[in-house]
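Researcher: Good morning. I'm working through a list of sequences from a screen, and I'd like to move beyond sequence-only analysis. For each chain I'm collecting a predicted structure so we can compare shapes side by side. This is the next one on the list. No need for commentary yet; just the structure.
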Amino acid sequence: MKEQIARVQAEALEQIAAAGCIKELENARVAILGKKGSLTQVQQGMKDVPKEDKPAVGALLNAARSAISAALETRMQELQKQADAAAVAGVDMTLPGGSLPAGGLHPISIVREEAVRILRRMGFTLADGPEIEDEWHCFDALNTPPDHPARNEKDTFYFDSGKLLRTQTSTVQARVMERQAPPVRIICPGSAFRRDAIDATHLSAFNQIEGLYVDHEVSVGDLKGTLEYFLKALFGDDTAVRFRPHFFPFTEPSFEIDVLLQATGQEPRWIEIAGCGMVNPAVFENIDRETGKSLYAGCTGFAFGIGLERLAMIRWGIRDIRLLIENDVRFLAQFQ
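Model: Good morning. C-alpha cells for this chain:
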C-alpha cells in the first residue's frame, strides 16, 4: 500500500508538471483527485489495511494528497500568469486608456433634486411612505367619499386583497399627521399610479412631489406665496404662473396651478402642473377620530401636489411626456 501511494504521487506530480494549459490541468486534477481518480482509488483500499498499519498508511496518504494539491495550485498560478501575458502580448501598456462616455442623471431625477433642495431651504422636511396602500390612507383620511370616481377600479389599480397602488403621495401626509402633532411642514416625493390613458401629457405611472404645511393661522396667502416662490426659483423670475379655482375633496378652497410652457417650434400654452388648496377641516377631523386624539383641532394648513414630469416638460420645453419613459439615449444625452 505504501509503495502504491508513492507511485501514484510520483505519477501525479509528473502529470501536473506536464499540463500545458488550464484545461489540461483540470483534466489532470479530475484524473487524480476525482471520484474515479488514481489517488481516490488508492484511498478506498484503506479498508483492507491491517488495523496496526492504518495510522502510518493514513498519514502517508494525507501527505500525498497535500503534495498533489500544492502542486496543482502552483501550476495553476503559472499557467494563469502565462495566459495573462499572452492576452496582452503586442499591447503597448504605456498608452493612455480610452475615455468612456460620462453618464448623467435622468431629467426626472434632476428636477426632483432641485425641487427638494428649494423646498428644504423653505423649511420643509422629507417624508416617505409605502406605494402599496389601503383605502383609509388613500381616500377615507383625505375626505374622498365612497362614490368618488377616483375610488372606482377603472381609475385606480386594486389588488385582490383590497390594497391598492397609491394614486397620490398625499397618503404620506395622512400617515405623518397620524403620528406627529402640529406644526407639520413636509414634502413627499415619490411615485403614484392611476389608470390614465397614456398620451402627450399623461402617464399611468408618474412621479409627484407633495407638500403639507399645518399650523395655526396658515392662510391662502401663505399657500400662494410658497408656490409662486418655488416655481420661480425653479424656472426663473419671469415664469408665468396662474391659479384656477378647482375642487378637491381634501382641500377647500382648492386651486389648480398652470405654468406657461414654451416649447421650441410651438405656440406657448398653459400646462397644468399642480393641484393645491387649504386643507379641508374634515381631514383634520378624520385624523383625530382615527388616532383618538385632538391634535389638529383649531389648525389650518395648505397642501399641494406637483407632477415632476410636468416640471421637467416646462423646464426643458419637452413636447411629449412619453419621451421621459422611452429611454432613448439620443434624448437622454441632452441632459448630461
